[in-house]
Amino acid sequence: MQKVLITGFEPFGGERVNPSWEVVKQLDQREVAGARVVARQLPCVFGEALTVLNAAIDESQPVLVLAVGQAGGRVDITLERVAINVDDARIPDNQGQQPIDRTIVEQGPAAYFSTLPIKAMVNALREAGIPASVSQTAGTYVCNHVMYGLLHRLAGQQAVKGGFIHIPYLPEQAAFHPGAPSMAAQTLLIALELAILVALQVEQDLKVAGGATH
């Protein structure tokens, strides 16, 4: 049976939970479109996160890798279009590292584009009544670090799709961030399962607008 690897992060930045792992772990061993889902937690640590990710890829030999992370303050589920070759941390990671203007992969390209059908995934989520959009930046923290490292690993492997999804706070987190948007865990679970389904089934992405004016 084919495998899908989906990852979430441990809590960071003083949060007690990370919505990415709280939701992703519920997908472990589920079957979606004939593929078995394998869920793994990544440390919110530069370098180490990629070590754990690469080990999980080696172990599961997936046809699809979907990394998921928290984007507190975002109002919807965002499918990341691009990862850039730089670490520039506003806050330290969970081991106190705070790289500034550091290249992720020496001599690597400036950026990689997601190989997921991101616009088809956004469209499917919206049709299911779940707010979603294409994002033009994965930031410069550990999420971007993982997305870039993942796509660098998969470069040239057309049989394996990969990319990154950011999700909002859970309501229990937003309660401590007055005014911040949130999304229920059950909604996020439905969204990620649907995202996996579309990513597995769609080979040619939709040609629809998904850009931003700023």
TrEMBL record:
Gene3D superfamilies per UniProt: Peptidase C15, pyroglutamyl peptidase I-like (3.40.630.20)
Under SUPFAM superfamilies, the record lists: Pyrrolidone carboxyl peptidase (pyroglutamate aminopeptidase)
Give a GO cellular-component term.
Answer: cytosol
Which of UniProt's keywords are assigned here? Cytoplasm, Hydrolase, Protease, Thiol protease
Q: Name one GO molecular function term.
A: pyroglutamyl-peptidase activity
In the record, the note on similarity to other proteins reads: Belongs to the peptidase C15 family.
Protein name from the UniProt record: Pyrrolidone-carboxylate peptidase
| Protein species of origin | Serratia oryzae
Q: Which gene codes for it?
A: pcp
